[in-house]
Design goal:
alpha/beta; about 30% strand; Alpha-Beta Plaits; Rossmann fold; six-stranded parallel β-sheet; six-stranded mixed β-sheet; 2 domains; 12 strands
Length: about 240
Protein backbone atom coordinates (compact mmCIF):
# COMPACT_ATOMS: atom_id res chain seq x y z
CA UNK A 1 0.00 0.00 0.00
CA UNK A 2 1.35 3.45 -0.91
CA UNK A 3 2.98 5.39 1.88
CA UNK A 4 3.05 9.11 2.56
CA UNK A 5 5.54 11.44 4.10
CA UNK A 6 2.91 13.92 5.31
CA UNK A 7 0.57 13.89 8.26
CA UNK A 8 -2.06 15.94 6.36
CA UNK A 9 -5.23 14.11 5.36
CA UNK A 10 -5.07 12.88 1.75
CA UNK A 11 -7.94 13.34 -0.65
CA UNK A 12 -10.54 10.60 -0.22
CA UNK A 13 -11.47 9.37 -3.69
CA UNK A 14 -13.78 6.53 -4.65
CA UNK A 15 -13.31 4.81 -8.02
CA UNK A 16 -16.35 2.80 -9.11
CA UNK A 17 -15.55 0.35 -11.91
CA UNK A 18 -12.16 -1.32 -12.24
CA UNK A 19 -11.72 -1.89 -15.94
CA UNK A 20 -8.42 -0.86 -17.49
CA UNK A 21 -9.19 2.82 -17.16
CA UNK A 22 -10.68 2.64 -13.66
CA UNK A 23 -7.96 0.39 -12.27
CA UNK A 24 -5.20 2.50 -13.80
CA UNK A 25 -6.78 5.66 -12.42
CA UNK A 26 -7.17 4.19 -8.92
CA UNK A 27 -3.54 3.03 -8.78
CA UNK A 28 -2.24 6.34 -10.11
CA UNK A 29 -4.28 8.31 -7.59
CA UNK A 30 -2.92 6.15 -4.79
CA UNK A 31 0.64 6.70 -6.04
CA UNK A 32 -0.02 10.44 -5.85
CA UNK A 33 -0.98 10.09 -2.19
CA UNK A 34 -4.77 9.90 -2.34
CA UNK A 35 -6.80 7.71 0.02
CA UNK A 36 -8.46 5.54 -2.63
CA UNK A 37 -11.57 3.38 -2.31
CA UNK A 38 -11.80 0.99 -5.30
CA UNK A 39 -15.14 -0.70 -6.09
CA UNK A 40 -16.18 -3.32 -8.62
CA UNK A 41 -18.55 -6.28 -8.93
CA UNK A 42 -15.71 -8.51 -10.14
CA UNK A 43 -13.99 -10.12 -7.15
CA UNK A 44 -10.86 -10.96 -9.16
CA UNK A 45 -10.36 -7.31 -10.14
CA UNK A 46 -10.91 -6.23 -6.55
CA UNK A 47 -8.33 -8.71 -5.29
CA UNK A 48 -5.80 -7.60 -7.92
CA UNK A 49 -5.97 -3.96 -6.87
CA UNK A 50 -6.29 -4.51 -3.12
CA UNK A 51 -2.56 -4.06 -2.38
CA UNK A 52 -2.35 -0.84 -4.38
CA UNK A 53 -5.13 1.22 -2.77
CA UNK A 54 -6.35 2.05 0.72
CA UNK A 55 -9.47 -0.10 0.42
CA UNK A 56 -10.94 -2.36 -2.25
CA UNK A 57 -14.56 -3.55 -2.06
CA UNK A 58 -16.54 -6.02 -4.15
CA UNK A 59 -20.12 -4.81 -4.57
CA UNK A 60 -22.64 -3.60 -7.12
CA UNK A 61 -22.49 0.20 -7.36
CA UNK A 62 -26.07 0.26 -8.67
CA UNK A 63 -27.32 -1.16 -5.36
CA UNK A 64 -28.25 1.79 -3.15
CA UNK A 65 -28.27 -0.26 0.08
CA UNK A 66 -24.76 -1.56 -0.59
CA UNK A 67 -23.39 1.83 -1.65
CA UNK A 68 -24.74 3.59 1.45
CA UNK A 69 -22.52 1.33 3.58
CA UNK A 70 -19.48 2.94 1.90
CA UNK A 71 -20.50 6.41 3.18
CA UNK A 72 -20.04 8.11 -0.21
CA UNK A 73 -20.93 11.51 1.26
CA UNK A 74 -17.58 11.39 3.08
CA UNK A 75 -15.65 11.11 -0.20
CA UNK A 76 -14.01 14.21 -1.62
CA UNK A 77 -14.60 12.80 -5.11
CA UNK A 78 -16.46 9.81 -6.56
CA UNK A 79 -15.35 8.72 -10.04
CA UNK A 80 -17.67 6.43 -12.01
CA UNK A 81 -15.62 4.43 -14.52
CA UNK A 82 -18.09 1.68 -15.39
CA UNK A 83 -17.24 0.52 -18.90
CA UNK A 84 -19.49 -0.13 -21.86
CA UNK A 85 -22.60 -0.74 -19.75
CA UNK A 86 -24.03 2.75 -20.12
CA UNK A 87 -27.18 1.97 -18.14
CA UNK A 88 -25.16 0.70 -15.17
CA UNK A 89 -22.94 3.77 -15.26
CA UNK A 90 -25.92 6.11 -15.24
CA UNK A 91 -27.64 4.17 -12.47
CA UNK A 92 -24.48 4.11 -10.34
CA UNK A 93 -24.21 7.87 -10.80
CA UNK A 94 -27.83 8.34 -9.68
CA UNK A 95 -27.25 6.10 -6.65
CA UNK A 96 -24.18 8.11 -5.62
CA UNK A 97 -26.15 11.32 -5.95
CA UNK A 98 -28.95 9.89 -3.83
CA UNK A 99 -26.46 8.71 -1.22
CA UNK A 100 -25.07 12.21 -0.81
CA UNK A 101 -21.82 12.12 -2.82
CA UNK A 102 -20.77 15.78 -2.97
CA UNK A 103 -18.51 15.68 -6.00
CA UNK A 104 -18.96 13.21 -8.86
CA UNK A 105 -16.92 12.68 -12.01
CA UNK A 106 -18.18 10.23 -14.64
CA UNK A 107 -16.60 8.57 -17.64
CA UNK A 108 -18.83 9.01 -20.72
CA UNK A 109 -18.61 6.52 -23.56
CA UNK A 110 -20.36 8.68 -26.15
CA UNK A 111 -22.06 12.04 -26.62
CA UNK A 112 -25.52 10.68 -25.80
CA UNK A 113 -24.35 9.49 -22.39
CA UNK A 114 -22.58 12.82 -21.80
CA UNK A 115 -25.80 14.72 -22.52
CA UNK A 116 -27.77 12.52 -20.13
CA UNK A 117 -25.14 13.07 -17.43
CA UNK A 118 -25.34 16.81 -17.98
CA UNK A 119 -29.13 16.63 -17.59
CA UNK A 120 -28.54 14.76 -14.31
CA UNK A 121 -26.46 17.68 -13.06
CA UNK A 122 -23.05 16.03 -13.41
CA UNK A 123 -20.55 18.80 -14.09
CA UNK A 124 -17.36 16.75 -14.44
CA UNK A 125 -17.55 14.36 -17.38
CA UNK A 126 -14.58 12.42 -18.78
CA UNK A 127 -14.51 11.89 -22.54
CA UNK A 128 -11.72 9.36 -23.11
CA UNK A 129 -11.34 10.11 -26.80
CA UNK A 130 -11.06 13.86 -26.17
CA UNK A 131 -8.76 13.45 -23.16
CA UNK A 132 -6.51 11.04 -25.05
CA UNK A 133 -6.23 13.40 -28.00
CA UNK A 134 -5.21 16.24 -25.67
CA UNK A 135 -2.75 13.98 -23.85
CA UNK A 136 -1.07 12.85 -27.08
CA UNK A 137 -0.87 16.43 -28.31
CA UNK A 138 0.74 17.56 -25.06
CA UNK A 139 3.31 14.76 -25.25
CA UNK A 140 4.20 15.76 -28.80
CA UNK A 141 4.74 19.45 -28.11
CA UNK A 142 5.94 19.07 -24.49
CA UNK A 143 8.16 15.98 -24.31
CA UNK A 144 9.26 15.14 -20.78
CA UNK A 145 6.33 16.94 -19.20
CA UNK A 146 3.17 15.28 -17.92
CA UNK A 147 0.43 17.90 -17.63
CA UNK A 148 -1.90 16.91 -14.80
CA UNK A 149 -4.55 19.61 -14.97
CA UNK A 150 -5.14 23.14 -16.17
CA UNK A 151 -5.48 25.74 -13.42
CA UNK A 152 -6.35 28.59 -15.80
CA UNK A 153 -6.11 29.02 -19.55
CA UNK A 154 -2.34 29.51 -19.28
CA UNK A 155 -1.38 27.89 -15.97
CA UNK A 156 -1.12 24.20 -15.15
CA UNK A 157 -0.16 21.60 -12.59
CA UNK A 158 2.45 19.31 -14.14
CA UNK A 159 4.96 16.56 -13.43
CA UNK A 160 8.54 17.11 -14.57
CA UNK A 161 11.30 14.56 -14.21
CA UNK A 162 14.22 15.79 -12.10
CA UNK A 163 17.32 15.61 -14.29
CA UNK A 164 20.98 15.32 -13.36
CA UNK A 165 21.50 19.07 -12.86
CA UNK A 166 19.37 19.01 -9.72
CA UNK A 167 20.29 15.63 -8.23
CA UNK A 168 21.96 15.98 -4.84
CA UNK A 169 20.84 19.59 -4.42
CA UNK A 170 18.22 20.94 -2.04
CA UNK A 171 15.12 22.76 -3.24
CA UNK A 172 16.56 25.96 -1.76
CA UNK A 173 19.75 25.54 -3.78
CA UNK A 174 17.77 24.95 -6.97
CA UNK A 175 15.72 28.08 -6.24
CA UNK A 176 12.90 27.06 -8.60
CA UNK A 177 10.63 30.00 -7.77
CA UNK A 178 13.15 32.74 -8.57
CA UNK A 179 15.22 30.96 -11.20
CA UNK A 180 12.42 29.25 -13.14
CA UNK A 181 9.19 30.96 -12.07
CA UNK A 182 7.47 27.79 -10.83
CA UNK A 183 6.53 26.45 -7.41
CA UNK A 184 7.27 22.87 -6.33
CA UNK A 185 4.14 21.52 -4.63
CA UNK A 186 5.23 17.88 -4.23
CA UNK A 187 8.08 15.46 -4.87
CA UNK A 188 7.47 11.87 -5.93
CA UNK A 189 10.21 9.36 -5.12
CA UNK A 190 10.49 5.68 -5.99
CA UNK A 191 11.84 3.47 -3.23
CA UNK A 192 12.89 -0.14 -3.75
CA UNK A 193 13.09 -2.71 -0.98
CA UNK A 194 13.40 -6.47 -0.57
CA UNK A 195 10.15 -8.40 -0.48
CA UNK A 196 9.27 -12.03 0.22
CA UNK A 197 11.03 -14.85 -1.63
CA UNK A 198 13.87 -12.65 -2.82
CA UNK A 199 11.69 -10.37 -4.95
CA UNK A 200 12.02 -6.60 -5.05
CA UNK A 201 9.17 -4.29 -4.10
CA UNK A 202 8.79 -0.80 -5.52
CA UNK A 203 6.85 1.87 -3.66
CA UNK A 204 6.09 5.43 -4.68
CA UNK A 205 6.31 7.94 -1.84
CA UNK A 206 4.80 11.40 -2.14
CA UNK A 207 6.23 14.31 -0.19
CA UNK A 208 3.34 16.78 -0.46
CA UNK A 209 4.89 19.31 1.94
CA UNK A 210 8.37 19.78 0.46
CA UNK A 211 10.81 21.96 2.41
CA UNK A 212 13.79 23.99 1.28
CA UNK A 213 16.25 21.48 2.75
CA UNK A 214 14.74 18.45 0.96
CA UNK A 215 17.39 16.90 -1.29
CA UNK A 216 16.46 15.73 -4.79
CA UNK A 217 17.40 12.17 -5.69
CA UNK A 218 17.82 10.38 -8.98
CA UNK A 219 14.44 9.26 -10.31
CA UNK A 220 12.49 11.95 -8.44
CA UNK A 221 9.54 13.57 -10.15
CA UNK A 222 8.72 17.21 -9.43
CA UNK A 223 5.07 18.23 -9.24
CA UNK A 224 5.11 21.89 -10.23
CA UNK A 225 2.60 24.68 -10.68
CA UNK A 226 3.16 27.68 -12.90
CA UNK A 227 2.49 29.23 -16.27
CA UNK A 228 2.65 26.84 -19.22
CA UNK A 229 5.50 28.89 -20.68
CA UNK A 230 7.52 28.64 -17.46
CA UNK A 231 6.92 24.89 -17.23
CA UNK A 232 8.10 24.41 -20.81
CA UNK A 233 11.11 26.61 -20.12
CA UNK A 234 11.95 24.56 -17.04
CA UNK A 235 12.03 21.39 -19.11
CA UNK A 236 14.13 23.04 -21.81
CA UNK A 237 16.63 24.21 -19.21
CA UNK A 238 17.46 20.60 -18.39
Amino acid sequence: MPQEQSTSRPNRIGVFGLGRFGAGLAIRLAELGADVLAVDTNEEKVNEIDQHVSRAVCLNATNEFAVRKLSPKELDLAVVCIGRNIEAGLLATAVLQKCGARNIMVRAIDQNQAEILQAMGVKRIISLEKEMAQHVAQNIVRPGIQMLTSITANHSLAEVQAKSEFIGKTLAECNFRNAYGVNIVAIKSTEKSDAAEGTEKTEVQVNDLPRGDDVLKEGDTLVVIGSDDKIRALQNEY
